[in-house]
Amino acid sequence: MTQNDTELTARLAREHGISEGAVTAVLDALRRGGGTMAQFSHVDFGGMSQWSSGMTMVGDMFNGSLKAKLNAIAGELSAYLRDHPAEGRNDDTNVSYRSAGLATAGSWWPDEFGSPSAAGSQNHMRYAAFNEKRRLVIDDHGNTIIYDTGDHRISGVSQSQSTDTTLTFVSQHGVVSVSDLQRVDAA
């Protein structure tokens, strides 16, 4: 971390009454999410949490003040990364969150896709984005569906906490719903 990172995380931790480690977890996740989204797990946010502009989820999902705290912290850190791109660089910018075991689980997606640019799982769904192949693969309870992502370069994934479990993805164009993508049967 740079000196600016350290000063910013310390200030945000003080202002929001949260540990510096929690702020650092958000900053690291934002770096991996290209500065526009974060998926991470930290006890100060109730466990698994997600943030992108307009969407905030914390592990303690009914804790509105904790959501507001994450939204304020992530919003300021996102702006910081946008204003300081050299300080926002990270060697692992392609994957915002990778579930434990996913990298060693064997390719549940078609082998010809190679390594995903973004991958994860939530609520019995797995997803992997392949920007170079313009494909998104979703496995929902063993039902694998492949989508054409068009010109979207997916950098993150989020799932609403509503009952319809709508998947939305973050690309260079903003948020895109899986329902907006064309389903394809072939790689």
Key descriptive features of the protein:
25% helix, 187 residues, alpha+beta
Descriptive report:
A hairpin with a 4-residue loop joins β5 and β6. The longest helix is centred in the middle third of the chain and has 20 residues. Helix content is 25%, strand content 29%. With 187 residues, the protein is α+β, with helices and mostly antiparallel strands. The protein contains three helices and eleven strands. About 10% of the residues have low confidence.
Distance between the termini: 40 Å
The gyration radius over C-alpha positions equals 17 Å
Assembly status: single chain
The topology string of helices and strands comes to: HHEEEHEEEEEEEE
How much of the residues is beta strand, in percent? Answer: 25-35%
| DSSP strand count | 11
Structural class: alpha+beta
What level of helicity do the residues show? Answer: 25-40%
So how many helices?
Answer: 3
- Give the averaged pLDDT, no decimals: 79
> In terms of per-residue confidence, which ranges show pLDDT below 50 for 5 or more consecutive residues?
87-105
Strand order in the largest sheet: 4-5-6-7-11
> Which sheet architecture does the biggest sheet show?
5 strands, antiparallel
Mass-distribution shape: elongated
